[in-house]
Amino acid sequence: MEQKFINCSEPGHESNQANVICLEKNCHKHGLICSYCIIIDHKSHVSNCVPYSDFLQALSKINMAKVKESLNIISSEIIKWNS
Ligand SMILES: [Zn+2]
Ligand SMILES: [Zn+2]
After folding, report:
1. Residues with CB under 5 A from ligand 2 (ion)
2. Which of 21, 24, 41, 72 gives 20 to 30 Å between its CA and that of 59?
3. How far does the centroid of ligand 1 lie from the alpha carbon of residue 41, in Å?
4. Coil, helix or strand at residue 35
5. pTM of the model
6. Which residues are found with C-beta within 5 Å of the ion, ligand 1?
7. Tens of pLDDT along 24-76?
8. How far is the CA of 1 from the centre of ligand 1 (A)?
């Protein structure tokens, strides 16, 4: 699968690639974010923000149904944003 990044949709971040995923389920902006976003909105849970490439790798390894389910929700959001 070819990896295609999209630019961040936050105002002022347009030139920044959204290549990080916030996995914090309590975060109202969880999903695909850029490095500016981490500094602005995700400072309190940086440990739950992972590089997109790591996320894809983890997704392919995970077998636990529950975890997979929540990750699928996030990835379907990303697919929505990409289309
Ligand atoms: Zn951003
Ligand atoms: Zn977050």
Report:
1. 22, 24, 27, 42
2. 41
3. 9
4. helix
5. 0.65
6. 8, 10, 13, 34, 36-37
7. 989 999 999 999 999 999 999 999 999 988 887 877 776 666 666 777 777 77
8. 24
